Amino acid sequence: MNASTEEQPSSSLDGLKWGIIVLLLIAAIGGNYYYDQESVLLRAVGVVVAVGIAGLVAMQTFKGRSAVAFAKESRTEVRKVVWPTRQEAIQTTGIVLVVTLLMSLLLWGLDSVLFWLVGLITGMKVL
């Protein structure tokens, strides 16, 4: 069995932490509805704070630490990407547009021929 399929160790408190996260998110949603007479700005700040605290708690779990590590590795990989120049992007976009136009004309023509053929075979003329 390789490392990717083995059960990963997790803290015994991870379940409690996920429960706290769910309660924080429910409280954020409920508070937003309960205080609907308050300023939208205050409610938005409250929701953002509650979601931020839930995120901080989530980062303390095994899955949260794994997600943060994945995000860091992804950022490193994105830096390695060789992005196309403006000229290459414009040329590629033009090619995609031309091929799309040609394929749409081809499919329209094929559809028209098949429609005519079915009408010829069945003797029905549909406008």
UniProtKB/TrEMBL annotation:
Role played: Essential subunit of the Sec protein translocation channel SecYEG. Clamps together the 2 halves of SecY. May contact the channel plug during translocation.
Pfam families, per the entry: SecE
Chief place where the protein resides: membrane
InterPro entries per record: SecE_bac, SecE_sf, Translocase_SecE/Sec61-g
Name listed for the protein in its UniProt record: Protein translocase subunit SecE
Oligomer status and interactors: Component of the Sec protein translocase complex. Heterotrimer consisting of SecY, SecE and SecG subunits. The heterotrimers can form oligomers, although 1 heterotrimer is thought to be able to translocate proteins. Interacts with the ribosome. Interacts with SecDF, and other proteins may be involved. Interacts with SecA.
Keywords: Cell membrane, Membrane, Protein transport, Translocation, Transmembrane, Transmembrane helix, Transport
Family stated for the protein in its record: Belongs to the SecE/SEC61-gamma family.
Highest rank taxon of the organism: Bacteria
Spans traversing the lipid bilayer: 16-35, 41-62, 95-118
